[in-house]
Every structure is written in structure tokens, then in C-alpha cells.
Design goal:
The complex is a heterodimer. Chain A is of the alpha+beta class. Chain A has a single domain, classed as Jelly Rolls, CATH 2.60.120.260. Chain A is built from one helix and twelve strands; from the N terminus they run H-E-E-E-E-E-E-E-E-E-E-E-E. By secondary structure, chain B is of the alpha+beta class. Chain B folds into two domains: about 40 residues; about 260 residues, outer membrane lipoprotein receptor (LolB), chain A, CATH 2.50.20.10. Chain B is about 25% helix and about 35% strand. Chain B contains nine helices and 13 strands. Chain B is globular, with a radius of gyration of 27 Å. At the A-B interface, helix 1, strand 8 and strand 9 of A face helix 2, strand 7, helix 6, helix 8 and strand 10 of B. Strand 9 of chain A pairs parallel with strand 7 of chain B, so a sheet runs across the interface.
């Protein structure tokens, strides 16, 4: 009886450890409608399009048109240090032209320009950097120097995929 | 009652030290199992990771270079393969382009872009309203990127990320998801060099999206004295509604994009909303060494990248 109970305990601990460690290895999606996403400024909730059936959308900010909006995707607290790989999900649009924006990987990662008009329902790789548990990705509706920009273009905040293999 | 007695006896038999020992054994076994899982790529997403190419050189090698020049009879696969290998078809590039936005609500509808590139990692360019002085300029020597806003007399200096400095090192270690969702690895300099023409010169991201959607060759044309084939790309949503429509003019020898048109529902799907046309392009010119060196003007002030961004041009 004792041996059987002991075996059950060992098996349970094995499975829990295996599940936790493999999940941590695979990475996870930071959804824009989760508590790991913070937003400021105007964003419209869109349920027609987007990864996981939801996305936030607003328009590009130019002088005198629209307002400034900003979204941050945060990794789970306690995430171990290491090399962080980031992907941004670019959803379908609503038939209007989408904006060219930049994703900034913080606190010490690269800034990657992505033309949201060029892609529809793709994960786009943003690069990697060595970071800590304070890592986050930032994207706003500002124009990006060197690119065309106007206030009629749509900007999308959707899922962000993070992995720390 | 009998069951209750069995449970009571079972709880009484639990020895705390034995429990700790069992949990420790289980944890070690779990970690070992994970190590085996990762090493031998036994998980579904790990198996997927071993299959698709994930760096630009791997993706290019996976698409065999077609016979050039392309013609209107070429297959879309050939066009895509040339675009994926376009970085091997030129060493330096110098181009000028005009971007026009077909929207009467806007004050400024025409912009000009200049770019000079030397592989790998060197470049410079500027962007301005047609007929005006440059609003934005940039230089890269392959290690550092300088962004300049001449009208504000400020510039910022950014070290290029280590993985961006060589094409071979840039890319993820695995696909984004285990269920094989569509993904794009753009050319690193497409995402880093701040120019409308970066994705023209490095069309790898667009080519990967062409691989995963329906595109067709709809004609041929001459742009900037170069032969091109015209590719139409349309994306429909799950209900069959058109959500994106683009046209691209592809250089038949190099795979570089020389013109594009973006259509939008707001302008009517038959009228383009934005058009960028390369008006001049020269491949493989020899640039003087100073071309990719940055020298600030005496009255210019260096600011942090964040401060530079906050002083961004908002047209």
C-alpha cells in the first residue's frame, strides 16, 4: 500500500514538473485583452477580426488629427532572464489602409518597423534580446520617420507572442 | 463508513519525510523528461520547429533561384523565389522614388525617398515632401544607425542589434506556435532601415506572404528603365470579403520591387490609395567610403532614441 502511494506521488510530481517546464519553454501569447496588456488613449475593441477573435484598433496620430494611443504587452512577472524572442500578430483589416508602425522591445531590445498593410493574419517576427522579467513590447500610433503616414490609416494592437527558450 | 476508515488509515500512514523524498524524485524525473523531450524534439511544436527554414539565407536556399529574367510566362513560384533570393542579385543599390497618396482630405500628398544601400548593413537615405528639404534622414555604417531630423537639428544614435549585423544570425529558434499558424520572418534590414524603400530592396517578408496566399501575375511593364512583371495580391476574409488588395512591379532580373499600389475600400477597390514608384535605380555602383559615415552638423544636438521618437514628424 505504502509503495503504491509513493509511486502515485512520484508520478504526480513528475507530470506537474514536466508540464510546467515544457510550458515555460514553449512561450506564450500575451493577449491584448488580458491583464498583461496595458493601454492608454483611444482604442476601439474589435471582435470581428484578430488573433483569438479580438483586437484593438484606432487610427494613426498626426498633428491635429486623432489622439495619441499607446499599448504595452508585458511578460509574466518572475520570467527568468534569458534571450527573449518576440512575434507580433497582424490581423485582417476592415478594408481601409493600415499604418506603418514600429514595435519597440523594452527595456533594451530592438525597434522593428512593420507595415501592417502588408500582412493579414500572420505572426511577424520582431527580433530578440537578452532581458529580464521586466521585458515588454510597446507600440503606439505615431508616424514613423521615413515612411508615409496619414490620419486615415488604421493601427492594430493584437496578440504578442513571447518565448524565452 | 468503511471507506472513511480506509481513508483515515491511509492518512495516518503518510510520513512527511517520505512525501518530500517522493516529490523530489518526481521533480527530478519531470525535469529529465523535459530534457529528453527538448533534446529529441518529441513535442508537436518542436517537430514543427525542425521543418521550416527560419533565417533569410535558409528561406532563400529553400526556394531555388529561377532562370532570369522573369517573363510574363513565369510562374508565381519563380517570382517568389527570385524575391526571396533578391539579396544575392545585387551588391549596391541607389534609388529615388515618389510616393503619392490619393486622398484629397490630406494636405501633403506626395513624398520623395532616396536610398543608397551596400550589402551587408550599410545604407543611407532621406524622406521629404516633394520639392522640400529633407524632413528625415538616416545613415548606417553596418554597426550603428543614426537618425537625423534636420528641421529640428537633432539626431539619435542606435547600435544595431547583434543578430541584425549578420544575415545568418537573424531569426527565431522555432516557429511562433505549435499549430503551424502562418508566420513571416522579414529581412532584418527591412525592419531596421527607416525607409519606404527598405521593403522594396528587401522584399523577403512580402515574398513569404505571397507563398501563403493567392497571387497572380497580371502583366508586365517598364519602371525606371527596368523590365518588371506585375503581381496582384488580394486577401479575403472568412466571409469572402476583400480586405486587402495590392499590386507590385517586380524587377525581372533582381526581384527588387520597383513600384507598388495599395488599394483600399475607402478609396474604392478599383482606385489605388497609395502608390510608390521608383523613378531611378542603379545597381552595383561603387560608393565612396564616406557615403556611410555620419558627420553631424555643428548646430546639431544628439538626443536619446526615445526623445528622438517623441520629436517624430507627425504630418
Amino acid at each position: 500500500m505504502k509503495k503504491r502511494i509513493s509511486l502515485i506521488r512520484i508520478l504526480t510530481a513528475t507530470l506537474i514538473t514536466f508540464f510546467v517546464t515544457t510550458t515555460a519553454y514553449a512561450g506564450y501569447i500575451i493577449h491584448e485583452n488580458s491583464s498583461n496588456f496595458s493601454k492608454s488613449g483611444t482604442m476601439w475593441s474589435i471582435t470581428q477580426y484578430g488573433q483569438n477573435g479580438h483586437a484593438y484598433q484606432y487610427m494613426q496620430y498626426t498633428s491635429g488629427n486623432n489622439s495619441y494611443s499607446n499599448g504595452n504587452w508585458y511578460v509574466n512577472s518572475g520570467e527568468p532572464s534569458g534571450t527573449y524572442y518576440w512575434w507580433a500578430y497582424i490581423p485582417y483589416n476592415l478594408g481601409q489602409s493600415d499604418a506603418i508602425i514600429d514595435y519597440q522591445l523594452k527595456p533594451s531590445g530592438p525597434t522593428t518597423v512593420v507595415n501592417q498593410e502588408s500582412y493579414a493574419n500572420y505572426w511577424v517576427y520582431l527580433g530578440n534580446f537578452s532581458g529580464t522579467s521586466s521585458a515588454y513590447a510597446k507600440m503606439d500610433n505615431n508616424c514613423v520617420g521615413g515612411y508615409s503616414c496619414d490620419w486615415t490609416r488604421q493601427v492594430w494592437w493584437d496578440g504578442m507572442l513571447f518565448s524565452n527558450p | 463508513m468503511k471507506r472513511f476508515n480506509v481513508l483515515t488509515r491511509w492518512i495516518q500512514q503518510i510520513e512527511p519525510s517520505r512525501v518530500k523524498k517522493d516529490i523530489l524524485i518526481g521533480a527530478i524525473a519531470g525535469i529529465t523528461l523535459t530534457a529528453i523531450f527538448i533534446t529529441f524534439q518529441l513535442g508537436g511544436w518542436q517537430t514543427v520547429a525542425a521543418e521550416p527554414p527560419l533565417t533569410i539565407p535558409e528561406i532563400a536556399r529553400n526556394a531555388s533561384l529561377p532562370k532570369t529574367p522573369l517573363t510574363i510566362e513565369s510562374s508565381t513560384e519563380d517570382v517568389i523565389a527570385l524575391m526571396l533570393n533578391s539579396h544575392t542579385q545585387w551588391h549596391t543599390l541607389q534609388a529615388h522614388a515618389i510616393t503619392t497618396i490619393n486622398n484629397q482630405q490630406l494636405d501633403d500628398n506626395s513624398w520623395q525617398t532616396n536610398i543608397e544601400l551596400e550589402q551587408y548593413g550599410k545604407g543611407r537615405g532621406d524622406y521629404s515632401r516633394v520639392g522640400n528639404e529633407s524632413d528625415f534622414a538616416w545613415v548606417s555604417d553596418g554597426n550603428t544607425l543614426w537618425k537625423v531630423k534636420p528641421t529640428a537639428n537633432v539626431y539619435s544614435e542606435i547600435s544595431l542589434p547583434e543578430d541584425v549585423k549578420t544575415l545568418e544570425n537573424y531569426g527565431p529558434t522555432s516557429p511562433p506556435t505549435e499549430d503551424n499558424q502562418a508566420f513571416i520572418v522579414i529581412h532584418p534590414l527591412d525592419g531596421v532601415f527607416p525607409s519606404m524603400l527598405s521593403s522594396f530592396a528587401f522584399p523577403h517578408g512580402l515574398a513569404q506572404s505571397f507563398q501563403q496566399q493567392v497571387v497572380e501575375i497580371v502583366g508586365s511593364d517598364i519602371v525606371a528603365e527596368r523590365d518588371t512583371v506585375i503581381v496582384l495580391s488580394q486577401v479575403f476574409d472568412d466571409e469572402g470579403n476583400l480586405v486587402k488588395k495590392h499590386e507590385y512591379w517586380i524587377d525581372t532580373d533582381t526581384g527588387v520591387i520597383l513600384k507598388n499600389r495599395v488599394y483600399a475600400e475607402s478609396s474604392g477597390w478599383d482606385k489605388w490609395y497609395e502608390q510608390t514608384t521608383v523613378t531611378e535605380i542603379v545597381y552595383d555602383v561603387t560608393f565612396p567610403a564616406r557615403t556611410f559615415q555620419f558627420k553631424s552638423e555643428h548646430n546639431m544636438r544628439q538626443v536619446s532614441p526615445d526623445d528622438f521618437d517623441s520629436a517624430r514628424i507627425n504630418q
